[in-house]
Design a protein that fits this description.
InterPro entries: AAA_14, DUF4143, WH-like_DNA-bd_sf, WH_DNA-bd_sf. Pfam families: AAA_14, DUF4143. This protein is of the alpha/beta class and 325 residues long. 44% of the residues lie in helices and 16% in strands. The chain is built from 16 helices and 9 strands. The strands form 2 sheets. It has a 6-stranded mixed beta sheet, with helices on both faces. A 3-stranded mixed beta sheet has the order 1-2-3, with no helix packed on it. Helix 6 packs across helix 13. The longest helix is centred in the last third of the chain and has 19 residues. The chain starts with a helix and ends with a helix. The relative contact order is 0.09.
């Protein structure tokens, strides 16, 4: 009976825009958006019924962070659900089947609805996700006075995928101030549209440290922003696509394994660079992302200054093993 009263209280607080599944001592609330009193009812009821497990999901990361997190401090575990990962797909479909879909993934990304759609529908679906759902959080929950600036910044970042980004250069390009650029970038990272990668520096004079790189959590979204779903074989930005894809798949692998390394890129003023760096317990792993199978060598300046670092080359032949371990 207590479980029934609890369920009714949660229904009253949630009002609309959600659905639920109630089974034994587990209550699942799906798409808990636009709620007001729900966070406090969750807090009260978890205290009253300690054996009850509540799973609350929502598409608005702003709303979940701002409204739900505070009342539940110390009584919650947060999980981020990204687009599908090659780790998940490898375990489900096997490497051979997945390898045959790599070209499709690099064009259209790994949003579940896109990945599972028929070939003739995926481009349209990826475009719809980009034009509608992509901007939902940031436009609905933030004071965005000029949505066009948001679109311009996203397209500029898409064009600079894999390259170092200067906030000052972006501001000049778009004719807006630097603070506005950084505010939008921060918001886009919070709603998991982009991932910002900072430069690694051991405080050596010849290492870059001020610029950053931006990757998209889903490569299909990036391609949709540029309205370009061409095959890798004819793309001038194939290297950028591959780097974006590999970096984010590696980050997903660590996240789902509950590991929390720091991620960077590295470059010095002489032009030597490392695409992607992981740092765990003071140990460095340096990655070079090459779409085609070719030889690569760790830059001499990096090798000399970070002698105990591990060097890993990822290409389309070994991607499903190198990025998922």
């Amino acid at each position: 009976m207590e479980g029934l009263f609890l369920f009714m209280a949660l229904v009253a607080s949630a009002k609309l825009h959600w659905s639920s599944i109630f089974w034994r001592n587990i209550l699942i609330l799906v798409n808990t958006c636009s709620l007001t009193t729900l966070p406090y009812n969750l807090s009260l009821n978890t205290a009253r019924f300690p054996s009850l497990q509540i799973i609350a999901t929502g598409s608005s990361s702003f709303e979940l962070q701002n409204e739900v997190s505070s009342p539940l401090t110390g009584r919650k575990i947060e999980f981020n659900l990204y687009p599908l990962s090659i780790l998940e797909l490898k375990n489900h479909e096997g490497i051979n089947a997945l390898a045959g879909k790599l070209g499709h993934i690099l064009k259209f990304g790994l949003y579940p609805s896109v990945y599972l759609s028929e070939e003739d529908k995926v481009a349209r679906l990826a475009g719809e996700i980009t034009s509608s759902y992509l901007f939902k959080d940031i436009l609905a929950y933030q004071d965005i006075r000029n949505p066009r600036i948001l679109e311009d910044i996203l397209k500029a970042l898409a064009l600079q995928t894999g390259n170092e980004v200067s906030s000052n250069e972006l501001a000049n390009l778009l004719n807006i101030d630097r603070a506005t650029v950084m505010r939008y970038i921060d918001l886009l990272e919070k709603i998991f549209v982009i991932k910002v990668l900072r430069a690694y520096s051991g405080n050596l004079r010849n290492e870059l440290s001020r610029k950053f790189k931006v990757y998209f959590w889903d490569i299909g979204i990036r391609n949709a922003l540029l309205n370009n779903f061409n095959d890798m074989s004819i793309r001038s930005d194939a290297g950028a696509i591959w780097e974006n894809f590999c970096a984010l798949e590696r980050i997903k692998t660590h996240s789902y394994a509950d590991r929390q390394p720091s991620f960077y890129f590295w470059r010095n003023y002489q032009g030597q660079e490392v695409d992607f760096i992981e740092e765990i317990d003071g140990k460095l792993k340096a990655f070079e992302f090459k779409y085609t199978k070719s030889t690569a060598k760790l830059p001499s300046a990096f090798a000399d200054n970070y002698k105990n670092s591990e060097f890993i080359v990822v290409n389309k032949e070994n991607v499903f093993s190198r990025l998922t371990s």
